[in-house]
């Protein structure tokens, strides 16, 4: 996967989504969602991740978007208040409440979460348990080396939540 590309996903639908817009998309079989990520969002994301990475700290951002007719258009990033360090991040409850207020105000959804690891990119058990988004088809992008080094040897990994019960995150190619 190359950052800045358009990402096409087809997650399996195995449960009811708590997000009504996503549930309607699943019912209409438009979960062949094309996720469109503008280069400006990618640049803002990398800037935020690298800023923390230079301090040897993980960082977590969310991509907020709008679903329309089988396409999820990412419009902006949300950087929640967070506690983070070399190999962890934690989003306090009040930061989650602020996110919910912003989502309602902007009428957007959380389409993807993006975070870094200090070494290689993978979806850890802590990532599975601490995932902010948990709807079928949710995307989680993990960048290696705090987002500072992207190469053929140190590539980001993209995961899709394939099953709500049990939080089954599947790596996409």
Question: Which key terms come to mind for this protein?
Answer:
two-stranded antiparallel ribbon; alpha+beta; 173 residues; Cytidine Deaminase, domain 2; eight-stranded mixed beta sheet
Structure description:
- The structure is a single chain.
- The chain has helices spanning 20-27, 39-53, 93-106, 125-130; strands at residues 7-8, 34-36, 60-68, 71-78, 83-85, 88-90, 109-116, 139-143, 157-163, 168-172.
- With 173 residues, the protein is an alpha+beta fold.
- It has a single domain, classed as 3-Layer(aba) Sandwich (Cytidine Deaminase, domain 2), CATH 3.40.140.10.
- Strands 1-2-4-3-7-8-9-10 form an 8-stranded mixed beta sheet. Strands 5-6 form a two-stranded antiparallel ribbon.
- Strand 3 and strand 4 form a beta hairpin.
- 32% of the residues are buried.
- Residues 7-31 have low confidence and may be disordered.
């Amino acid at each position: 996967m190359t950052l800045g590309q358009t990402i096409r996903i087809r997650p399996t639908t195995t449960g009811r989504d708590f997000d009504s817009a996503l549930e309607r998309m699943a019912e209409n079989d438009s979960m062949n969602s094309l996720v469109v990520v503008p280069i400006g969002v990618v640049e803002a994301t990398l800037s935020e991740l690298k800023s923390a990475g230079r301090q040897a700290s993980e960082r977590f951002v969310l991509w907020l978007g709008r679903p329309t007719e089988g396409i999820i258009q990412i419009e902006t990033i949300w950087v929640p208040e967070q506690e983070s360090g070399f190999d962890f991040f934690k989003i306090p409850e009040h930061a989650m409440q602020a996110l919910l207020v912003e989502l309602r105000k902007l009428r957007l959804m959380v389409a993807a979460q993006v975070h870094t690891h200090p070494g290689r990119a993978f979806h850890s058990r802590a990532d599975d348990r601490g995932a902010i988004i948990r709807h079928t088809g949710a995307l989680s992008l993990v960048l290696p080396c705090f987002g500072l080094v992207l190469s053929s040897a140190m590539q980001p990994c993209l995961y899709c939540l394939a099953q709500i019960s049990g939080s089954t995150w599947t790596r996409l190619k």
